[in-house]
Amino acid sequence: MASVDANASSSSSLALATTYEGDDIALLESVVQLIDVIEISPDAIAQSDGKRASLRPEILDEYAAVASSVDFIAHGVGLSIGSFDRWEESYLRMLDELFERVELQWHSEHLASTVVAGENVGTMFPLPRTEQALDVVCERVRLLQERYRVPFLLEHVIQLLPDAPAEFSPAGFLNAITSRTGCSLILDAYNLECDVFNQGLDAMAFLDELDLRPVRELHLAGGVEHNGFYLDIHSGRTRSDTLALGLEIIRRAPDLRVVTFEFLKEAVKVLGHDNICAELKDVRRAIQ
Amino acid sequence: MTELETYQRGLLDLVKKRGPAPSDPYLRHVAASRELRIVQEIAVWWRLFQIEAQCHFTSLLLKRLGCFHDTVISYFNENHTSPFVEELSRGFLESLRTHDHALVRMVARFEFAFLEVRSGSSERYEILWDRHPDRLLYALHIGGELTEPEPGSVYRMRIAGDLLGMVECTRE
Q1: How far A203 CA sits from the closest chain B CA (Å)?
Q2: Which listed residue, of A85, A100, A184, B15, carries a Cα 20 to 30 Å from B21's Cα?
Q3: A85 contacts A51 by C-beta, under 8 angstroms
Q4: Which residue range forms the structural domain that includes residue B145?
């Protein structure tokens, strides 16, 4: 089994990860034989009683049952690290609970805001690439690094809305965050493809400009095209173009540790267990 | 350069289709964009998906009445919605207490009570039906013809955690 080990040499093999959000033991039993790491989204395994959210104990038990076979990493959705007023304390409580129950190699979050002035926005707003947003994010990254003694990674999100006036390029903004905080990055090959398709991003120029040394994790996924836009709804297998971009990132990122095939729990019925397993085998072959 | 607060509050208002037209040039550009319609669609799509999964009978009834999509859009745009499906469903079903259609009020109240008790609430709920609830719910489930009200009959349904099967119903 390849490990997540953040200190491993760059020549060690890449670990393969996938999403698992519980309630499907058959899927867990199938994928656990094919992967090294499970990506846990605290938000996705939580329930709320109206007063507070907590992690569902039965899903934590599912993770415990396979803990001898795989490592775990956390990948959040709802921290809202870029909100102008505050981040989501409720997410941090869920993350605290996850750290108590599961040994996590690292945790990560999307570079976005999901809550504005206390109101859930129902989607993810990318951050405007400004000095002001940079200050907000870097201070919160620092607080996270103090709070949890494992590496913290940020993932760029797709830019679906028209790009806001900016003081940084997309890669330059990520470089500023990593150089200022020392945090690491997730690159999502499918998100980049969406930006190429929707916004005309030059992916190779982005990679040329990006400092790839902090990149620890690569996300692969398949999505949907809707009304002329690529959407980051992870509901399909990885397309060959996405995989090719992923392989280019693997070639360039010297300290990459994990490649994660992501899919939504809601997509499992459509994808099917066999397809998910076939995808994991294909990705393993491609990244070796 | 748009201030972060202006940017985020402005985008939220645009996604939720509320507030006056923005004065900020960037937000005006977003307001007129095709991309905003897509983002609005995605935000609502997630709520539709979650509500459909959690509020089975209410969703089926609203679909039957041809107003599921619009009802969810209105709820999303006019309310703070939770990212947690339990809270989203609770809020949505509560919002239907004042729905114009009596049958929607009944089914939503039944589903609200059932979800609450199933999630551990110690509250006791009572729902009065103007028709046999089992037959109505079965018709919704299989897509059959909706049963008609039974004049002179009231079905008193109680839902509580200490009842056998959580539900009992008597005809009066």
Answers
A1: 21
A2: A85
A3: no
A4: 33-171
* C-beta separation of B49 from A264 below 8 A: no
- B29-71 pLDDT tens trace: 999 999 999 999 999 999 999 999 999 999 999 999 999 999 9
B44 to chain A: nearest residue by CA? A122
pTM for the complete prediction?
0.92
Long-range contacts formed by A274-279: CB under 8 A, 24+ apart = A275/A237, A276/A18, A276/A27, A276/A30, A276/A31, A277/A30, A277/A31, A277/A34, A278/A237, A279/A237, A279/A238
Enumerate the β-bridge partners of residue A120: A115
Measured distance CA(B144)–CA(B94) in Å, rounded: 26
B1 Cβ under 8 Å from any chain A Cβ: yes
- Which amino acid belongs to residue B166? M
Is residue B130 in a domain?
Answer: yes
pLDDT confidence band for A205 (50 / 70 / 90): very high
CB pairs under 8 A between A and B: 107
CB contact (8 A) between residue B29 and residue A125: no
Nearest residue on chain B to A227, judged by CA atoms? B38
What angle do the packed helices B85-95 and B68-78 form, to 10 degrees? 110
Contact between A203 and A193 (Cβ < 8 Å) = yes
The helix or strand, by DSSP H or E, that contains position A105, with its residue range, turns out to be strand A104-110
**What ipTM goes with this model?**
0.92
Residues of A within 8 A of B2 (CB-CB) are 128, 164-165
Number of folded domains that form chain B: 1
A198: closest CA among A172, A226, A174, A156?
A226
Q: What is the mean pLDDT of residues A164-181?
A: 97
* pLDDT band (50, 70, 90) for residue A233: confident
Q: Does B46 touch chain A (CB under 8 A)?
A: yes
**Domain limits, chain A:** 15-287
User: How far is B135 from A177, CA to CA, in rounded Å?
Assistant: 60
Q: How far apart are CA A49 and CA B116, in angstroms?
A: 9
Q: What class does CATH assign to A15-287?
A: alpha beta
